[in-house]
Prior knowledge:
Helix content: 40-55%
Domain Aminoacyl-transfer RNA synthetases class-II family profile: 175-415
Binding site for ATP: 264-266, 351-354
Strand content: 15-25%
Distance between the termini: 51 Å
Catalytic activity: tRNA(Sec) + L-serine + ATP = L-seryl-tRNA(Sec) + AMP + diphosphate + H(+); tRNA(Ser) + L-serine + ATP = L-seryl-tRNA(Ser) + AMP + diphosphate + H(+)
InterPro entries: aa-tRNA-synt_IIb (IPR002314), aa-tRNA-synth_II (IPR006195), aa-tRNA-synth_II/BPL/LPL (IPR045864), Ser-tRNA-ligase_type_1 (IPR002317), Ser-tRNA-synth_1_N (IPR015866), SerRS_1_N_sf (IPR042103), SerRS_core (IPR033729), tRNA-bd_arm (IPR010978)
Protein name: Serine--tRNA ligase
Largest sheet: 8 strands, mixed
Structural class: alpha+beta
Amino acid sequence: MLTLNTIKENPEEVIRRLAIKNFDATQVIARVLELDKTRRNTQASLDSSLAELKTLSATIGQLMKEGKKEEAEAIKAKTGEIKEANKYLEAAMKAAETEITDILLTVPNMPCNAVPPGKGAEDNVVERMGGIVPELPEDALPHWELAKKYNLIDFELGVKITGAGFPVYRGKGARLQRALINFFLEKARNAGYEEIQPPYVVNAASGYGTGQLPDKEGQMYHCNEDDLYLIPTAEVPVTNIYRDTILNEADLPIKNTAYSACFRREAGSYGKDVRGLNRLHQFDKVEIVRIDTPEHSYQSLDEMIAHVESLVQALELPYRILRLCGGDMSFTSAITFDFEVFSAAQKRWLEVSSVSNFESYQANRLKCRYKSGDKKPQLAHTLNGSALALPRIVAALLENNQTPEGIRIPKALVPYTGFDIID
């Protein structure tokens, strides 16, 4: 969440930048400043009262030594009244602090100055494009038909076992999944990321730490009895490794990668745009996460973008990189770059990765800090990116590589699949 100091230093700038996300912060910022004034005034009154109590306690001790018991008892009675009043001051201060925190949890992160204004996806900026869009015949099949033809993915069986959005991968379809996971993990390890195998369920504190709660509570699967949440991405457990932690600056940037299944309710997802693998409730993804200093985090962001770009290039997929406008960004992000690959049979772009810098927004919620020498600890910056999400990658690979002989496997992936064609 935003720090109180950030808001106090320049509230007009906070309001201006949040407006780029189409969030009107005028009233909430005014309320936060009002509550902070109440908190500070109450704190001053409490400090003054505690100082008075200290003085009176010393006076009582002196009077008792001098045998002036009645005067001492009178002052004792006064200290009792002050202590009772202090309880109300402490309660008022606590209430103000709690309300400030509750409000700040509902305020999104400020976009950085490089974020373009805009309402939605149509206002995103294309940074660059790469790869060659294949020319397929008119009778080219979409991936859901290819999956059925070659017995790779059984969507109907998934409905029988669980429900829509939970496909069953079979034979070479399952091997292709495993190959992609291993390929992405090996590339991340070679790029210096430590591999993590995280839990697939997290507690509420972890959800609040990375910003899924309370903003995206309705999109997460919740285990009511245990009050645990199925993870929407490995970002959540991996980033929470560093919750309530003070890191050494010399150890930054920290670079982690993790494979996980991901679970998203995706309420209200219907229609042709979610057919087949286009949108699932359970899917596989390899994530990369960095913890860095504010001075270096944007270099880290560039390196993460380059890493994801190298993956789609290795898979020989046509792609484009988008710089998201304010209206299409996530609640927690300061800047986001989306990767999309072109699905030749569907004739549409499919998002396969988001790479984001959250600056200190998540770190403030996580209390993730770093220090150098004897300097005071300060908030780190957190970043993450999909490297990569599998479903739409698989969709594009199947569609773009279909031939009369079968589905060709990209050369870089063959050592991982053990076959070069699906026939």
